[in-house]
Hints:
The protein is mainly α and 442 residues long. Helix content is 67%, strand content 0%. It is globular.
Amino acid sequence: MNIPMKKTGLAALAGTAVLAIASPAFAQDAGVSAETQYILNSFSFLFSGALVMWMAAGFAMLESGLVRTKNVSTILLKNISLFAVAGIMYYLIGYNLMYMDVTGWIGSISLWSADDAAALAGDFSGGYSATSDWFFQMVFVATAASIVSGTVAERIKLWPFMIFVVVLTGVLYPITGSWTWGGGWLAEMGFADFAGSTIVHSVGGWAALTGAIILGARKGKYGADGSVHPMPGSNLPLATLGTFVLWLGWFGFNGGSQLAMGTGADVIAIANIYGNTSMAAAGGVVAAAILTQILYKKVDLTMALNGALAGLVSITAGPDTPTIGSAIIIGAIGGVLVVVAVPLLDKLKIDDVVGAVSVHLVAGIWGTLAVPFTNDGASFGVQLTGIVAMGAFTIVASSIVWLILKFTVGIRLSEEDEAMGSDAAELGLEAYPEFGKGSQRF
């Protein structure tokens, strides 16, 4: 099988350590058999993919902590459902649309199936098992949909949202992905997005932004005089836990995108990616905390959480080339941008419940533009071309889907259901029943 031009992997630490212990001569042996590399590369995909899958739990905890009590069960249902739907759609159409027989703009429309015949016959030149690769690519898909989930929370209907997820994960994301990781026209231009600041995060951010605009703000969020009425989330400890879970999962997201761990050079690259990823998040936290103290005379926890995520998104486009110091700066700028972008969206009366547009879209654009500062092989012109192309496509395509849903099945809860809360209106249950009916006041 041909090796797709995807992101580039991880799990070397564990695998290399085991081999080194088992055979002291291993460390001195510059040559590693093709089968050993095949095993290590496949293990990298599987282990990293498991870490990325755990990010779904992070998104669920983050979003449930930042929505009001009366909407917590619904946001949890959306997160587990969108992950399931994303995987099914990627199997049915998404993977082949993104990677198989890409002609420049789009891949093939067909059902994915594993082909490991060569490896089973002893030919390991393919580099890794087919399903390990599919699994690693699949767990990325739900991230884009999770971004949308948090933005349009508390006022969107469940089933229209899930229909949008079907289209986003099965068609829209794979098409833009084929332009880049699939070896399409942007890849040929030299567009650099190592693990998806634009391909995953900005695409999800654009889809979320169009949804928020078409859907409208939550009732009571903005006053007629332009005032903004805060609507505090239900559980900040849970939101903080979700942020830490995402931080952990991001090591698989970025580290696994090395796409190999069969050599010492791969292991060194993965280690550098892990270090840069973590320190970019650290830069984002510190920058957001300091800036909110300066601007508001108090540190905002939610801004610090989003600062961490913005740092992670910012470094995702190029975690392999910066130094630790550069990574901290890249992440810190992402944290600053979030603190600026969140109130700016409020001024524009764009209601983003969890700040996902500011984190994933704004920081995603910044991270993609930052790549040439540390990577001589990237250019600002090509990076900007990729940002604009994927943004324009996602805005137009997402808007069409949202508008079709709006004028057919409807996308917004009624005023009565929104006031009651989507948990009671759509699910008939409460996330925290012991709180009693008093929780519905908010």
